[in-house]
Amino acid sequence: LKHFITTEGLSKALLTEIIETADSFADMSAQQVKKVPLLRGKTVVNLFFESSTRTLSTFELAAKRLSADVLNLNISTSSTSKGETLKDTLQTLEAMHSDMFVVRHSDSGAAHFIAEHVTPNVAVINAGDGRHAHPTQAMLDMLTIKRHKGDFSPLIVAIVGDILHSRVARSQIHALRTLGAAEIRVIAPTTLLPKNIEALGVKVFTNMQAGLKDADVVIMLRLQKERMQSALLPSESEFYKLFGLTNEKLQHAKPDAVVMHPGPINRGVEIESAVADGPKSLILDQVTNGIAVRMAVMSMSMSGQMTEKNLKSEAQ
Ligand code: CP
């Protein structure tokens, strides 16, 4: 099997293998060895039903660096606008002998649905589905943490902001737990916390000072306004005052703490520019590591190194 839908339920061994494979691609790239023939003759189709800068670009670059042929279907100008169903669109692309679909969709479960309906010779990689999962984002974040902190076991990781709507937070929490992080905290107003979030094995804080205390890694998330009912939209200025990451609030974390954000960032809402552009920020490292992780996931997927379990939905 070759699908990569979620980080939930994957073994520590598989997550570690993805990180180690990506680490070697990142080292190769740093030494200017950018292209390898692992996916030569394969066709990768990027199917993004939601907007993206980082994920789409780095999947395209990663596929090209693996020597695949890459097709980015422009959904807004595709025949979906003439009423073609998702299934018919997929069948049409399969008829072009595609080997891999990289899918982003606003519906939670879309990647899982597609994986269940494609022919067995097509792999499906989830590039973000609704609030559900964004597994390659989580893995590039794990690679970034590994490259800067080494071992996961002593780390206190604080994830801050709109946890309720964040597929990134869910995928990060599953990966961090499996990789053995010492403590995973979520910090958010109660209105932006999912019910029963504690069941995922996290500590919940509604106060930044308490939640950031002695943290090694601080991961900021943006307010996902596109997924919020307008009545529930918090005031940006109030949110920034209480939960926006400033150098002053960052003082509560460990002196060598690092700051991460999956992007896109909203300066002055969840993070101040002095932090986003400051010496503790790994935000652009995350973007760079996205290429290596996507190379690892695509090459492992094509060589059958993913596990059957990965078809399971985190929503189940
Ligand atoms: N982090 C992330 O998914 O960014 P994009 O929406 O730009 O792909």
How is the CATH topology of the largest domain named? Rossmann fold
* Strand order of the biggest β-sheet: 7-6-5-8-9
Q: Which superfamily, in CATH terms, is the homologous superfamily of the largest domain?
A: Aspartate/ornithine carbamoyltransferase
Question: What is the N-to-C succession of helices and strands?
Answer: HEHEHEHEHEHEEHEHHEHH
Structural class: alpha/beta
Unreliable runs: 307-316
CATH class of the largest domain: Alpha Beta
Could you name the key traits of this structure?
binds phosphoric acid mono(formamide)ester; 4-stranded parallel β-sheet; alpha/beta; 5-stranded parallel β-sheet; 2 domains; globular; disordered C terminus; Rossmann fold; 316 residues; 11 helices; 9 strands
Question: Can you give a write-up of this model?
Answer:
Carbamoyl phosphate binds at residues 54-55, 104, 134, 137, 263-264. GO terms for molecular function: amino acid binding; aspartate carbamoyltransferase activity. Pathway: Pyrimidine metabolism; UMP biosynthesis via de novo pathway; (S)-dihydroorotate from bicarbonate: step 2/3. The protein is an alpha/beta fold and 316 residues long. The chain has two domains: 12-134 and 287-311, Rossmann fold; 136-283, 3-Layer(aba) Sandwich (Rossmann fold), CATH 3.40.50. Helices cover 37% and strands 14% of the residues. The protein is built from eleven helices and nine strands. It has helices at 12-30, 54-65, 86-94, 110-117, 135-149, 167-179, 208-212, 236-243, 247-250, 273-276, 283-302; strands spanning 43-48, 69-73, 100-105, 123-129, 156-160, 183-187, 203-205, 217-220, 258-260. The strands form two sheets. A five-stranded parallel beta sheet has the order 7-6-5-8-9. Strands 2-1-3-4 form a four-stranded parallel beta sheet, with helices on both faces. Helix 4 links the parallel strand 3 (100-105) and strand 4 (123-129). Helix 1 (12-30) packs across helix 5 and helix 2 (54-65) crosses helix 11 (283-302). The longest helix is centred in the C-terminal third of the chain and has 20 residues, at 283-302. Residues 307-316 have low confidence and may be disordered. The structure holds phosphoric acid mono(formamide)ester. Residues 52-55, 128, 137, 262-264 line the site of phosphoric acid mono(formamide)ester.
